[in-house]
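Listing S7. Sequence submitted for prediction.
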Amino acid sequence: MPEHDFAVWAPRPELVRLDVDGVLHPMTRGDDGWWRTSIDVAPEVRYGFVLDDDRKVLPDPRSPRQPDGVHERSQLWAPASAAWTDADWPGKSAAGAAIYELHIGTFTPTGTLDSAIDRLDYLVELGIDFVELMPVNAFGGTRGWGYDGVLWFAVHEPYGGPNALVRFIDACHRRGLGVLIDAVFNHLGPSGNYLPKFGPYLSSASNPWGEGINIADADSDEVRRYILDCALRWMRDFHADGLRLDAVHALVDTTAFHLLDELATETDALSTQLGRPLALIAESDRNDPRLITERERGGYGLTAQWDDDIHHALHTAISGERQGYYSDFGSIETLAHTLKNGYFHAGTYSSFRRRRHGRQLDTSSIPGCRLLAYTATHDQVGNRAIGDRPSAYLSPGQLAVSAALALLTPFTAMLFMGEEWAASTPFQFFSSHPEPELAEATRNGRKAEFAQHGWNADDVPDPQDPATFERSKLNWAEVEIGEHARLHRLYRDLLELRRAEPDLADFWLDHMTVDFDEEQRWIVLRRGALAIICNLGDAAVAVPVTGELMLAWGVPTAGDTHTELAGQSFAVVRT
């Protein structure tokens, strides 16, 4: 049997022993808090660590595989043994691409990475460039969104484990699809979180999901290294083309070299080493341009960021919703301003936050493709009380106008699985915590949260009920039925137009002009010779733009000086 070097950072316990198949082996502690030993073991042996006098065998904080769940022993897994066929994969830029966010567990009936491979050709035909996987790290239970991960290096076993992720990414690359992985580094889940037993992984700060991660307090250097190594591992060992970084505003870093800056620097170095582009896309609610400003100009140098202002401006203008954080949005003027400037709140007062929020984006130096535009995400659907998609309360015409404004603007475009055919299935919040007390707390907390916002608590689905998970699975039969099929064709045509027209590859917001009429509820985006004319209202309008028709929802009538649009429709014309 080959010799293997076992190591674990554990500065807190006085004694650490290695458990290999039930046999304990002594480990030696170094001055750096790392415990090490080398023994002969089988390549896929089960192992764990015993701390002090505790009888519980704990999984490796850097576990490569958790075949029996996050509470049990780890298993060795060697990425070098995986069979890759993507040696000629050149990679591609995520900036300006079309990204498809999906949840492995509900994307297909069986909810595995291998079954998702069967739908990749569909995504290619749709016109997708990148697949963005919601978190696939190991978390407690069998089903969940994945944002409560506790073993960040391991792949959730019910999805197929690490070998299945290798097969999935390899299959994507063979089809020309890039892969982004959603990584959560701002908190740990409540089920199976043993890291604090090993060392000071948690900080004195907190966020809405629990205790924060120690990236700036005492003894934080190894915790930062833990995060950096995990992030780089997804891209190096699993060949991912980048990461979506969850809620980076919850990373409390008071050091001079911000963790995001450090991660971007090391990612660029890995990109050079691998010879292909690697992307870091942040989720942030701060509207802070530093995230996407080049490091040479004092920024963090991330590839792009999610832009909820674009979503809110678009969603409220079309749906009419105004509750909660939608309160400052809703007018056509607000939509036009946001599409033109990237952020709506840019040092302006936010009534939801009751303070000034955001900072102005320099559109002359930062292209629009550094921001992501979308009509739906797992958050904007799943964090509604009943997980209803826009297709549950918007007309096909309203969905079509939303799609045109999201996909034909200078931003990087993102779709949430199923939106392209107006899926009727919801995407609800679901979990499967094995601890009864945690399950009950999650159930009651969800109901109480929405009751505070005026919802009937009895209408809020039980996240622990397996039926909530089953309801959230896509119904693929809808793709070829009626209005679902019509919207699917529209999305395919919009993405094809986005790829084919050079004017739509100009991602500078300064090069786009925006006109609108608040009373008549139309808006026009001019991008080079193309004009995207949208009627958000119910009544027909005559918009003072005309030209050769390229694509439309409805039947527009072009005159010498105007184009007449029916209510809830759009047209793309070459002027």
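Caption to Listing S7: primary sequence and predicted structure tokens for the chain studied. The chain has a mean pLDDT of 96. The chain has three domains: 3-58, 98-502, 513-574.
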